[in-house]
Amino acid sequence: MHTQEIGKNLYQVDLETGGFKNLICSYILRGSKIIIVESGPTSSVPILADGLKELNFRLEDVEYVAVTHVHLDHGGGAGTLLKALPNAKVIVHPRGMPHLIDPQRLWESAQSVLGFVSEIFGEPEPVPKERIIPITEGSFDLDSGAKLKVIETVGHASHSLSFHESFNNGVFPGDAAGTYFPEFDVVIPTTPPPFHLDSALASLDKLISLNPSVLYYSHFGKASNAVQRLIDYKLQLQLWSRIAEQGVRQNKSLLEIRDGILAEDTVMRRLGGYLKSHKIYSKTALGNSVQGFIDYDKQKSS
Ligand SMILES: [Zn+2]
User: Fold this and answer.
1) CA neighbor of 96 nearest in space, from 25, 11, 156
2) Which residues have CB less than 5 Å away from ligand 1 (the ion)?
């Protein structure tokens, strides 16, 4: 079983990318039509399709695939997925659209930033232009007055969107609210370069102002106390930023700055050992995310 009912008309699919459970999920919203949130990566599309089958949904009833951004783990599989969904269109930020139409540059940059992790996600296939809905703000009908609302939440990427669904008053933040570890009930920053702190904080304020009850993290799963988590995430970003800024001023290396974060952030003190031993998070969370703050600080002061 890959799927789980997690709310009214809402299902989660564990994509088990690369064999890792609790790493990436997609969500399926069932209204008068079906909306998938996050295609996930190319390599996981067969599991998402299995999930639809498991829930007895027909592929032709999927109307939209809403991707929070085009990074391989969120929107990379859109082109492959659309081949299986004859009537679906992709909802994406306009700045992400060119990368869906022609994913070559995205693939090359993912290979250089993510290394072996990009191979686990798989190479994206193009999405036909006429099957893309570029949007930064607006809403889509779910059923009898319920809506999926689009919110522009840049910062993690310059083209990040979040989605709010009114069945359960929940938000799909993509990577705008960090990575959630349900086993530990904590969140850590997801801030690879090019990360923009000020935009990320403003985006979190936008999500807080919606007063959501629940968050549906793409990494990973549903979490309650949404507003408090968003507030805490802002504080955590500010803490990492202060540590990185000080480290850059003292000419510290990435590893030294990372160790400063592991020592000073109470969440990281708890999770550090787990992250260090995780094949993917040791590279992304402890490498790329720290680099995002370093680069942001250097570019801000240059
Ligand atoms: Zn991600």
Assistant:
1) 156
2) 73, 175
